[in-house]
Design a protein that fits this description.
391 residues, FAD, 4-hydroxybenzoate 3-monooxygenase activity, 8-stranded mixed beta sheet, alpha+beta, 19 strands, FAD-bd, flavoprotein, binds flavin-adenine dinucleotide, D-Amino Acid Oxidase, Chain A, domain 2, binds 3,4-dihydroxybenzoic acid
């Protein structure tokens, strides 16, 4: 088969890229090693920047997002048993975030791509990239029905942190920047009405806790745990006990409790490769960079990457100019490092490191006090959190 663009990975990055290309009249195929069910059900991100919401609406994906997404014009920073509200909209000239599960975006994208007659292959048994240093890179896919080779003009590596795209690039062609943060997040989804209409990011002496949500009846909660924590060390009673300890406020506010529907652990890592491409292979989303989740940036960065990549490919096919493709990596890295610094800063602001001294604790408290009492500091957090416009 000849196909202009081969897309590896049907997560939010790969699916949205295919959607944008389809709208530009560029044919693509998307392959994933997981099942459609798995890709849709995976519980992950929930916070969309204003920039992401605007983009999704502009490209015809605003239906359910507008009806079911929860627009939040503020968030809370909690410490010392008190919640402090940051008015994101007031601080940013009306911008806000929207809570809408990543799995809902994936569901909407799969539906849109099916309706457009696009080609998505789930359940691939094996995926490989070859001829990457030529003008005709190849995407080899083995499924239960046999093996196919797609000869492409371009390949988009949208296969996440553990995918094969980045691993197919000779290591001498990449520079890797990496830092592992010494925390794990225990995340739970609970059948309980969120006790707050806006997110509560909390620092307690026992560590970070976060109250988020997925709908008016589902609460999403996270707890900082030591690295290498085991899930079986956290029976439901212990999770609620710890959430009550960390999130209980002096005014009596506590999260609502209910049956735990799902729980999981997430390691915290910072990772960036430079450049975000090799020949005609372009990496986007988690395949190219990972940020710690505290700033809620991962999914939003993936969306910004594929928007830029789709625009560059469109320019190539429409005008023959490769200027935007040539600029893809540099522009992506500027946005990535900005998100990286914000995510690392939010992480250190709100997590308690193992072995913190009394000095560390007081300084961290002073950072938070300054933040909630300085409009300049709040504005800096807010403009990063709601997302910068696409360049
Ligand atoms: P992925 O979602 O990882 O998708 C990659 C796809 O590639 C997968 O479907 C996978 O099956 C497939 N694949 C893997 N290997 C291969 C292969 N060899 N061949 C073919 N396909 C392959 N981000 C935010 O912006 N806001 C948040 O609030 C937020 N919260 C998070 C909370 C948690 C607990 C976690 C884990 C992440 C969170 N993130 C958040 C990050 C966000 O989920 C990711 O950044 C996002 O999923 C990246 O999308 P992606 O399409 O690049 O990668
Ligand atoms: C959620 C995840 C995050 O990483 C974050 O910073 C805020 C909210 C969430 O899953 O709802």
């Amino acid at each position: 088969h000849r196909i202009p663009v081969g897309i590896v990975g049907a997560g939010p990055a790969g699916l949205l890229l295919g959607h944008l290309l389809q709208r530009a009249g560029i044919e693509s195929i998307t392959v994933d090693i997981r099942s459609e069910h798995h890709v849709i059900e995976r519980v992950r991100a929930g916070v969309l920047e204003q920039t992401t919401v605007d983009l999704l609406r502009d490209v015809g994906l605003g239906g359910r997002l507008t009806n079911e997404g929860l627009r939040h014009e503020g968030l809370y920073l909690a410490f010392g048993g008190v919640r402090h509200r940051l008015d994101l909209a007031d601080l940013t000239g009306g911008r806000a975030i929207t809570v809408y599960g990543q799995n809902e975006i994936v569901r909407d994208l799969i539906e849109a791509r099916r309706a457009a007659g696009d080609w998505i292959l789930f359940d691939a048994e094996h995926v490989a990239l070859t001829h990457l240093d030529t003008e005709q890179p190849r995407l080899q896919v083995r499924t239960a029905d046999g093996e196919e080779t797609f000869v492409c003009d371009y390949i988009a590596g949208c296969d996440g942190f553990h995918g094969i795209s980045r691993a197919s690039i000779p290591s001498s062609a990449l520079r890797v920047y990496e830092q592992v943060h010494a925390y794990t997040w225990l995340g739970v989804l609970a059948q309980a009405a969120p006790a707050s209409q806006e997110l509560v990011y909390c620092l307690h002496d026992d560590g970070f806790a976060l109250l988020s949500m997925r709908s008016t009846s589902i609460t999403r909660l996270y707890l900082q745990c030591p690295p290498d924590e085991r899930l079986d060390a956290w029976p439901d009673e212990r999770i609620w006990r710890e959430l009550r300890i960390r999130l209980q406020m002096r005014d009596g506010w506590v999260p609502n409790e209910g049956p735990i529907l799902q729980k999981g652990l997430t390691g915290m890592r910072s990772f960036v490769i430079e450049p975000m491409c090799f020949g005609r292979l372009f990496l986007a989303g988690d395949a190219a960079h990972i940020v710690p989740p505290t700033g809620a940036k991962g999914l939003n960065l993936a969306v910004a990457d594929v928007w830029r990549l789709a625009r560059a490919l469109d320019e190539h096919y429409r005008t023959g100019s490769d200027a935007a493709l040539d600029a893809y990596s540099d522009a992506g890295l500027r946005r990535t490092w900005r998100a990286q610094r914000f995510s690392c800063w939010m992480t250190s602001l709100l997590h308690r490191p193992e072995g913190a001294t009394d000095f560390d604790r007081r300084r961290q408290r002073a950072d938070l006090e300054y933040l909630v009492h300085s409009r300049a500091a709040m504005t800096s957090l807010a403009e990063n959190y709601v997302g910068f416009p696409l360049d």
